[in-house]
Amino acid sequence: MTRLVGLCLVAGVLLAGVLFPVVGGAGLLLARVGDRVTGPAALPADVEPPLMTTLVDADGEPFAHLYDQYRVLTASAGISQAMKDAIVAVEDHRFYEHQGVDWVATARAALRNHASGGVVQGASTLTQQYVKNLLVHVVARDDPLRRERLRVRTPARKLREIRMAITLENTLSKDEILTRYLNTVPFGAGTYGVAAAAQAYFGTTPDLLTVPQAALLAALVNSPTALDPEQHPDAASQRRDLVIDLMARHGTLVPEVAERAKREPLGVRSPVRPLPTGCVGADPGTGFFCSFVVDQLVAGGFDLERLKTGGYTVRTTLDRGVSAAAERAVEARVPSDTPGVANTMAVVKPGREEHRVLALVANRDHGVDAQRFQTMLDLPGGVANKFGAGSVYKVFTAAAALEQGYRVDSVIPSPASYTSRVFKGGAPGCPSTGEPDTRWYCLSNHDDGYPPRMTLRQALATSPNTAFVILEERVGLDAVVDVAHRLGMRRTLASNIAGEPPDPDSPRPELRVDQAGFFTDRQNASFTLGPAPSSTLELANVAATIVGGGTWCEPTTLVAVLDRHGEPVGPPPSPCEQAVPEPLANALAAALSDDDDRGTAAAAARAHAWARPAIGKTGTTEEYKSAAFLGATVDYAGAVQTFNDSPEPRAVCVGAGPPLLCGSGDLYGGTVPAHTWFDAMTEIHTGLPVTPLPPVAEGFRAKPGDR
């Protein structure tokens, strides 16, 4: 009985609308009868549909997309007339005649549905459909229960839609309503709106949709699942042809064109798919870069949900040419299917006002399928190499020494072995300090081929361990750690030697930080030998800081973030800092300039006929589980880390074939990492003029009697 009363009420209201065909009369009647219906008569004024966010490279080309609903807003001028005619013909052929509600069709449908005892005919206008789709797919998209209630056919819901449709018609033009409808309605295959559907089904844009294409999309609105052209091509074809016939019947298509259109195949892509979402679906080779972009946006105040619904255009610093060269290099030296061995590279553009990240690549793909050697770990951008960068950290000891008065050619001792009387924590075999279970730190060089004394420049090129532990004693470990932080190892130094963040409630001493904010477990002599987890990107940025006159800038992937209206919305760039004085940075660059000539990377440089002035430093960890190379010209800075990325902590061996996990190990910074760097940088620098490194100021040159 309740249902009958409700239907009679609706029918009475709708039939009354026939007697009062003007909006004013119908609106007055609805206002009286509809006082039993709660809810607003107008749509929320500030509601905006969720839109896809697009990440674009330095040339403005998209490489990744983030969305909850695959939708791209399109202006009326960007939608073909065929698409507009097709949707009007099949869904509401009196669209341009009514004022939001087709009273005759609605009354007829109400009476027919009542007579049949069920819903056999609908009569919602395009305006009403827009109202319903906006409420279901936009307003209530995060509320499943509300969304389900909005889908249930009830007289109350129908009256609300009618009231909103009439209000909408008094507010917007027909073309605006039609455009909004076409930007909101789902077309199946995970698409919302005509732009997304045009791409997914036909690989085109909505302005280029042909008559048969537009007719198929218009057909799908009725039932995207039942009319899926991949699963049900016959049903989709029949419904498409019906739309074409209706277009001809209502005068928007001449019969001859209609008949030709019906003879066209469906022509949908195979498979029909929306654009992939997330960094896992980014263009090949850009997944790690995408992940770092998202991290920077989140750090700048954008939460992930906002990114997936805001419709932003994120202009990034990604250089496809540089990235492709780096990717080829890392995979040439360590193929992507190499078990247990990761090869990562980051490239940064040096500068005084910003450090643009041009490439973040690895021999792995960014993804969730470990069987295909994919990983969700941020290999090049994060602190992923848990075994350390090795002797690359000697750069920081050298920088601290230069700050304290050493010069590029100051002579330092480099004995074959050395026992510190400053640093404790030595391994078994080192002399006891006299305290229980405590030994002095002792170590030896890699071999006996080093002279007993050498210049700082020679020491950086040939990398004797003893020389830098002695230097670390002289300048103080605090100074070394401090300059490492200033030059760029900021995220790296924010984690402990196990790669973990601080835990103020932990009783474990290795999770404590000192007054400077550095982990106390960094305070040991081995810091200069680089045993702790390190970021490839931060190493590259250190190189950019050195050749950039000592100016540290946070490595950024962001050029601008534009909202859906094209307005910039941040985040603001971080200010740069003068990490070390420019003369000191130039002196450090000069001290690092012999590695490709007489140092540990010389063989790799000769193999590439490298002749450009550059800085460089190799690093190898004690058990050969990782190795690194840091290098830069004045044009590009980059770093490579090669390391064991398996759960099994084994060494890495380098032979005639791809590197592999092994028992003893012979991976050095001058092998895979240096060769990867020169592979990439030789290609990246092609065509560029040869530019010298900055000159060394007089105060950093050696004088007679210098220590």
How would you explain this protein's 3D organization?
A hairpin with a 4-residue loop joins β19 and β20 (637-644). The chain contains 25 helices and 22 strands. It is of the alpha+beta class and 707 residues long. α5 (126-139) packs across α7, α5 packs across α8 (174-184) and α16 (394-403) packs across α22 (582-591). The strands form eight sheets. Strands 15-7-6-20-19-18 form a six-stranded mixed beta sheet, with helices on both faces. A four-stranded mixed beta sheet has the order 2-1-5-16. It has a domain at 2-36 and 67-263: Penicillin binding protein transpeptidase fold (Orthogonal Bundle). The longest helix has 18 residues, at 2-19. The radius of gyration is 34 Å and the shape is elongated.
